[in-house]
Specification:
Shape: globular
Number of helices: 8
CATH architecture: Alpha-Beta Barrel
CATH superfamily: Phosphatidylinositol (PI) phosphodiesterase
Order of helices and strands: EHEEHHEHEHEHEHEHE
Number of domains: 1
Distance between the termini: 23 Å
Radius of gyration: 17 Å
Structural class: alpha/beta
Helix content: 25-40%
CATH topology: TIM Barrel
Largest sheet: 9 strands, mixed
């Protein structure tokens, strides 16, 4: 990208831990704290609907069990995705990516969509998320940033909607990580914040890519990343950091 249109501060899964992650309630709360860009996790239902959830299984963040991607959207839409967090959010449903897109577009918020496939559906999920995102944001000034730990998902996203910007997520600096990001024509590397040092930042910037970090919840870590010259910070602490 010739121009980097995204803000430095990105609210993780909507509002970090202050609200049930990946629900519309979380994104509204993150916005109320002044954030204008959010990160979310997107996966496919059994009948091909792109919905928001991080885990492969339902137990941690809903009142159900089993693999989320093996259920139809009708069944998923009936679940309580808020009661696990606190009584104030009991009954909060799982949203679709389309519902979140409407919220973001109506309010001029920006989005980082992590493609989070159910194991074995990497290519199908990458393609579906990219095609839907291209459709939903076709008239938007700033498109969503698509990221994933799974190169196969990013490759499918690139094939389906090459115009959408992509970022490679890494939790270790595995052999060939930067070459893979370049081969996928990524615009960013999104790394565990502990991986960044002056040499690695220079390496990524030298390749023409941006440096983003997850999940930064301490002031000392944020200050270190700012001093290194990194470009984006994903945080749970929407109550601690001021995106202004």
């Amino acid at each position: 990208m010739k121009h980097w249109p995204y803000p430095r501060w990105i609210a993780h899964r909507g509002a970090g831990k202050l609200a049930p992650e990946n629900t519309l309630a979380a994104f509204r709360l993150g916005a109320a704290h002044g954030f204008r860009m959010f990160e979310c996790d997107a996966k496919l239902s059994a009948d091909g609907v792109v919905f928001l959830m991080h885990d492969a299984t339902l137990e941690r963040t809903t009142n159900s069990q089993g693999v989320g991607g093996e259920q139809t959207w009708h069944d998923l839409s009936q679940l309580d995705a808020g009661g696990w967090h606190s009584r104030a959010f009991a009954g909060e449903p799982l949203p679709t990516l389309e519902a979140l897109a409407r919220f973001c577009l109506a309010n001029r918020y920006l989005l980082n969509i992590e493609i989070k496939p159910t194991p074995g559906t990497e290519a199908a999920t990458g393609e579906a998320v990219a095609r839907l995102s291209a459709q939903l944001w076709q008239s938007a000034e700033v498109p969503p940033l698509l990221t994933s730990f799974k190169p196969d998902a990013l490759a499918a996203a690139k094939a389906a909607a090459p115009e959408l910007p992509r970022g490679l997520l890494v939790d270790t600096l595995w052999n060939g990580w930067l070459d893979k990001a370049l081969a996928l024509q990524c615009v960013a590397v999104v790394a565990n914040y502990a991986l960044w040092d002056a040499r690695t930042v220079a390496q990524v910037h030298g390749a023409g890519l941006k440096c983003l970090s997850y999940t930064v919840n301490d002031d000392w870590a944020a200050q270190h990343l700012l001093a290194l010259g990194t470009d984006g910070i994903i945080t749970d602490r929407v109550d601690l950091f001021s995106p202004a």
